[in-house]
Amino acid sequence: MSHIIILVIAGLTLAANLNANESRREDLNKTSIISNLITTEDLGAIEEEGPIAAAGKISRYLGQADVGSSPKDQAGPDFEETSPQTVAGNSALVRQILSPVEENLRRRDKIIVYAVREGDSISQIAEEFGISNQTIIWENNLSAYSVIRPGDKLVILPVSGIRHKVLKGETLAGIAKKYGLDAEKILEFNKLASADDIQIGEQLVVPGGKKIYPAAAYTARNVYAPTGAIPASTGRLLWPTTCRRLTQYFTWRHSGVDIACSLGAPIYAANGGVVIKAAAAGYNGGYGKMIIIDHGNGQQTLYGHMSKLYVGAGQTVSRGQQIGAMGSTGRSTGPHLHFEVRTGGVRRNPLSYIR
């Protein structure tokens, strides 16, 4: 009973002190029971954070980024920094961070000049810019066997194709017909106001265009007999085309190797020399349209089943020069090149002579 009376008195005393402002919270002993009852902890505002975005891997322009550098440092001055774009609702739409090369390809519509760096190759550069190897080769007057070195400058078109210099009397329709393309594509890509908005000497980018070689005007059996000794070419033979898929090897029944590729693929001289035969028509013992080049020192190479010839008998050719296009003429069941090597009049295995 005495305990109940003490608790009632304590309660009444506490209520009286609070109403009279005689007891302040900060004046109470921090360890007292009353302090623990009336003191509240200031928790402050609670903020929610979204997920922390991880740093994306961004490559240098035509190279690899340094670890630890910022996207701007990695990308160079032309890199456009991207920020997440939010939308209403419970989700956010974030634009993917692309490499500087991809960003460049997305908006590039102008011709640029690229400085070759250590380790670059034509195929690698073409892949980085999203264009074909031939586009770089045609624009820079190279061949498939040209060597590029650090510091060399290459002109890079914005798309796979070719540049055409407008000549006197040419029309846009005529240019498009020449390349077998739609004039509207040339008009749109070059941002021309109309088909009449072309000028003599103007360089037009022809998307999808291919280099046009002069039509062969050689007789069916154009043969050249050298009157003097042909200077001997040096070095191993070059691979004569851009493809490397062998469909038939050299055997006692097959006098060369067959290299399969697409119709019209370029064919190159395996070495420098003089064209001693250029047959632009006829069966020619199964070889179809064919070329024989004498490289001197008793060595000759033969190129069979061609669709077009770009050189004639008696013409001197250089190592790696394009001499024709792949076809399926003569005794052939599909586009390929029949390639022979003859030494001292004897047919040899070409794979023993090619580097």
TrEMBL record:
Protein name: LysM domain-containing protein
Transmembrane region(s): none
PANTHER family reported for this sequence: MUREIN HYDROLASE ACTIVATOR ENVC, PEPTIDASE-RELATED
SUPFAM superfamilies reported for this sequence: Duplicated hybrid motif, LysM domain
CDD domains, per database record: LysM (cd00118), M23_peptidase (cd12797)
Every LysM domain range: 112-156, 162-206
Any one Gene Ontology molecular-function term assigned to this protein's record: metalloendopeptidase activity
Species name: Candidatus Buchananbacteria bacterium RIFCSPLOWO2_02_FULL_46_11b
Residue ranges, annotated region (Disordered): 66-85
